[in-house]
Amino acid sequence: MTQQLWKSAVCMAMISGVNSTVSAQSRLEGTVFDSLRTSGPLRGATVMLVEANRYASTDLRGRFHFDSVPDGAWSLAILHPILDSLDLQLPQRRVEVRGRKLTVSIFTPSVSTVYRAICSADRDADAGVLFGTVRAVEGGAPVPSATVHTSWTEFVLGGAGNSSRAVADSARSNTSGMYVLCDVPLQTELDVSATVGGQRTGLARVLVGDEGIARRDLTVSLTDSAAGAAGAPGRSRITGQILNDMRQPLAAALVITLDGADTVRTDEQGRFALDRVAAGTRTLEVRAIGSAPRTVVVDVPVSAAVDTAIQVSRAVQKLARYTVKSTAPDRSLMARSGFADRQRLGLGAFATQKQLAVHNYPTVAVALQSMRGVSLELDASGRPLPMLRGGDSGRCIPTFIVDNMVMEVDGASPSPSVQKPFTDIEALVLTQQLLGIEVYSGATVPPELDRNPLKGCGVVVIWTR
């Protein structure tokens, strides 16, 4: 064979080899479905072709594809924020690629499957699971043998009438700091905290949605004396700014620590500062008239400051678009809460906007004084506090609810012994804004308004425009 013929043979062999390799390339495509939350295609998931270290993202319909995949056995891994938030890692899916195209379907585990794996029991339709990790503020190491407490209010409907009761549960963290609370209710606010060796976190508020699974990590300081049972003043500070929907500063908003240790109001720039805060998990609740309440969990370091920006929504309710032909239906929050239905039952005392406007009351306290069963008690500074019948002394401080928000009150005006004054409510509510008032004694409070059943002193409900 001449040199020229030999080169031609080599070239033909190379071309033949290339064609053979190309013919072994296939398209691997598929769809990822979310069985945890949406029961539909999982958008924005990252699909990894493990052995080739290649990645693809799912589109709006949960679809993904890899081109030019050589024939053979491959592994697919799925990553997504939903899975990360629940600390779930799906097992890799093994596939065998042969031919021009392979189509696969990948499903995340269902809520029942995850519940069974975590709780070692079958899940009831109205039960969920709350889990997370307890870590030390100092260094972030997992904290074993911490006791995690949770509590909630349960309403019971029966032939003998409606009642409510406080329910509590607890769990211990394992050697990895992980805790699991099974059989918790859905769509019910849970107050969660952790204690270990006399040290404790602040309260965190968690809502387990209809998906049935929620995670809440907690941090506890092992050295800050303020996190101990004695409750010494803390050495840390939380500062921040409250913004509205337009990201503009929101003045005069209340910022409250969930355990009630402190309450401040934002300035004209929407800024606030909470001093003497204990290190560890602390939850802030922001309240402003016309805005939806907002809770934010903050992990506070020891003897340091943390700054945060919190945005609240003023769109408390979304109004449907409709054409007014005569009198438009009342779509206020008060009306949608069932005010008219409760008024028809006549279990409490009621005042409508029209009735309140006739008298032009100068303050909210004076307006409340006009309600049946309410009397005013003056403190040393002459500031009034609405009271109801009840308690050991015959008069007690009711639970105040303003636009569906519980406003804790322990006195008329600020003083060393009064941390949650009624003046906070009067500063937020102008009499021109009053839309309606409801007053109930302890025995007549409707279940939907019994937000503090252990207090037993009745409820005063204030609605604004």
| Count of strand segments | 32
Mean pLDDT: 82
Largest sheet: 5 strands, antiparallel
Structural class: mainly beta
Strand content: 35-45%
Supply Rg. Answer: 30 Å
CATH topology of the largest domain: Ferric Hydroxamate Uptake Protein, Chain A, domain 1
Q: Uncertain spans, ≥5 residues at pLDDT below 50?
A: 1-23, 316-327
Number of domains: 4
The CATH architecture of the largest domain can be named as Beta Complex
Helical proportion, percent range:
10-25%
Number of helices: 8
Distance between the termini: 99 Å
Shape: elongated
CATH hierarchy, class of the largest domain: Mainly Beta
CATH fourth-tier homologous superfamily of the largest domain: TonB-dependent receptor, plug domain
Describe this structure in words.
The protein is mostly beta strands and 465 residues long. The chain has 4 domains: 25-107, Sandwich (Immunoglobulin-like), CATH 2.60.40; 111-222, Protocatechuate 3,4-Dioxygenase, subunit A (Sandwich), CATH 2.60.130; 233-316, Immunoglobulins (Immunoglobulin-like, Sandwich), CATH 2.60.40.10; 333-464, Ferric Hydroxamate Uptake Protein, Chain A, domain 1 (Beta Complex), CATH 2.170.130. The protein is built from 8 helices and 32 strands. The strands form 8 sheets. Strands 10, 11, 13, 14 and 15 form a 5-stranded antiparallel β-sheet that branches. A 5-stranded mixed β-sheet has the order 25-31-32-29-30. Strands 1, 2, 5 and 8 form a 4-stranded mixed β-sheet that branches. The termini are far apart.
